Amino acid sequence: MFLPADKSDEVDLKKTYDAIVVGSGAGGGMAAHVLTSHGMQVLLLEAGKRLNINKELRSMEWPYDHPRRGDMPPDSHGLSGNEYTIRQPPYAQGSSYKHVYSYIEAGSGSDYAKDIVVDEKDHPYTGTQYAWVRARCLGGKTNIWGRLALRLSDYDFKAASRDGYGEDWPISYADISPYYDKVDLYLGISGHKENLPYLPDSLFQRAVRLTPAEVQLRESLKKMDRVLTPYRAGVTTDGLKHNKYRVHCYGRGACDRRPGGCDIHAAFDSPTGLIYPALDTGNLTLRTNATVNEVTVDKNTGKASGVSFIDTGTGKTYTAKGRTVLLAASTLESARLMLLSKSNLYPNGIGNSSGHVGHNFCEHLMGPGVNGLVKDLVGKPRTLDDGRPGSFYLPRFRNLADRSAKFIRGYGFEGDSGTAMFPDNAYSTPGFGSAYKKTVRDYAGAFIGMGGFGEVLARFDNYVELDPEIKDHWGIPVLRFHIKFGDNEKKMAADMADSAREMFEAAGIEVLGVNREILTEGYSIHELGTSRMGTDPKKSVVNQFQQSHDVKNLLVVDGSTHVSASCQNPTWTIMALCWRSCDHLAEELKKGNV
Amino acid sequence: MAFEINRRDLIRIGAGAVLTAPAVLAAAETPKFFTPAEFALLDELTEIIIPSDGHSPGSRAAQVSAYIDKSVAEAFEDKERDDWRNGLKLVDELSNKMHGHPFMEASPDERAAVLTRMAKNEMKPKSPEEIFFGELKRATAHAYYTSKIGIHQEIEYKGNVMLQEFVGYEVK
Question: Is ipTM strictly over 0.90?
Fold first, then answer.
């Protein structure tokens, strides 16, 4: 791979950058790309390390070539799903393990992302139970994301008008659609056109193919006016001529064996997709190991003047100057940073005159789903089923034309079928000996399963705030959570389980198990909404261009600004919104309006 | 760049393709944690759980016991080591009770009978030996199906190769 020199540039503390971008994930990477392409001088600050991601992920490594078959070293511990439900945060408190990681590190195949996600010992949080996965390194969670890349529609942007709950977004699909197109073309996306008004198509590259079990389910769903579509992956399957850091997917299939991660960068990640090309313009200064702990303010103008940041290695604090500041530290970290930025002018934190920063939290609920068996496939010759960046997606069908009496909004399913490298039925098949071995072998390719992702309603009462006592490793106050699923989520989850069973049965798939339990808050890693967009400065934090209502040269360009969660995965929308806002910011700067 | 990957790939495929590696007896190596007697018992138990058959070699050839020994030796919690040692003792105690001699002195049928007893309540294990069977089987399955033999010969996994085109049915 043509990696740029592995160094972190020195920040020129005397210079006033055109823009300081905080965070280097989907939002921060996109901001760096768009602003540098407008010729602006940009400083990008990332709290974590700059890893050689190719060495970290090693997606083609066979399990037997790894000393622990993919498991972490014995002194490290990955929190299990169960621990989030029986214990209270901070989850590493009292642990004798040297390192404690979030749930994506639990179980097998987990050694590959341990340097990407944070160690809970250094990064505690308090309050209600929450499975908070954070990736502090260049590119953040885009290094290990699940790659499902979906558009939102006016069913989402105007959901409040449809069912009376919450707020509409200040934009409609027509406003963002051209920017979805730009993201599709610049980064590459795989999928199949379905012409669904509630799940608009992207400008797709080559789609993945389906297994026999998936074709069987797709055909059956047609009779119910529902759709199973090949996984819409934020992966370039045909290649990108304009990007020398990425190659097209060649179906090694490692993406589903481990917590995400594509070391050939066919799957989008922020460093190779956005940041390295931005560095090549000569307009970007990148500083890693820089934890921003305050947005500084010019007392005379009330505008943001830059940021102060702590070198994570030395602990020294520096101040960098910028004409504009863009926050993209992740939904929860950006809220934390705004709340930390208290001053005489902004006693509740910068951009928080509404009191809405940290509030209106929303995300996706996970857990309910179904597992089944396609009997005709038992004992059939082995086929290659996992050589693809994803299997299938089953889009929302509730509360579109009709209205459920039980709950509002919708949910979709992600699913998978066929043979994988490891036969999971080795653990669930009873017995031992030759008969056991043969059963595992004969059934390994005959299973199909899917799990739901449902919209969690944005509620003012679901919020985060600064903990008055607990601080992280660098002495920065941590977040205290007040986030709980409500009645709508519980009713939706029950319907997810019921409908999943119903669809499998209708397709002639033998149902082996239905999961009805909701996983702990946070499990979807789709946290959204803590600085929502809106037209009313009393009820929202930023405008439609993600500009703070209070501080015109402060933008928030990550998932915080989403007004509602929809049930679609948010990454593509984060990047489309950010692109639109940065184009607008560049225009406004030219006009002298910021 | 594509060439770089192709080349690295070919080397890997070459390495992975040596499937006829001689089935070195794991017992020939000195165990890191278990005593030689414990290790011989563990090795036999894993082979009974996933035996060699007409389709592919079993746990012994895949050196499952050596992998378990290494994992237990470096486990973070002492409890894990104690549980394994005690679990193996339970197997001999059960064999003594059922057949009047330790497991390794029992006939093949008697050994199978001991394991059948241990696996009786597999889905809801209650007694210590039933719980140990669950641990033993899980560890055996994990080590076997992540081994070269497990992946390539037993499951005949076709993936982790370069594809010109995705496999499966194209949606029209």
Answer: yes
